[in-house]
Amino acid sequence: PASDTDVDVAIFRDADSRLHIRDKAAVDEWMESDKGVHIMRDNCQHGWVICGGLWGIKKGVLPNLRHMIEDADLLKKDEFNKHGVDQIFLQYNIYPLIKSNAFVHDDWFPDGFVGEEKHPFPIPRLRGDGWWNQELTQMTKEEKEKYEHLFGVRA
Asked: According to the model, what pLDDT value does residue 77 have?
């Protein structure tokens, strides 16, 4: 879909991950920007330049992506037929091309990935013990009002 001329925006998420209001708010912020690519790192395990299930791309940014994937032929090489092959491809084949055109939400690696245009997530993650069990973060009154349309009820 990322290089399909009929697709305006492609957003990639892992099939086993829940969508959160934090994701929606971050994507909205990226969509309002002039940047063509969105990268998110919202967990200490997201230490790749681009995680396979946490990025998005606008139409026309990589019109040859399909051919790049086909030419890389990663799935036919035994050394790349493993978990993380998508991120290996993204790191070496895509990231160098899009780094200057990326809007990055990154709460975990403030000193890593030098030269990126980094932004905090619009809705901060809870920290400390048990944050991984939280379905939604605690939101301020202003944040609830800003995103009330996503909940279907007034704050």
From this structure: 63
Q: Where are the beta strands (DSSP E) in the chain?
A: 9-13, 37-41, 54-58, 102-106, 117-119
123 and 22 Cβ atoms separated by less than 8 Å: yes
- Give the C-alpha separation, 82 to 35, whole Å: 31
- For residue 5, the 8-state DSSP code is T
Pairing assessment for the beta strands 54-58 and 117-119 based on DSSP bridges: unpaired
> For position 154, what pLDDT does the model report?
45
pTM: predicted TM-score of the whole model, two decimal places? 0.76
Residue 145: phi, psi to the nearest 5? -65, -40
- The closest of 46, 8, 1, 43 to 22, measured between CA atoms, is 43
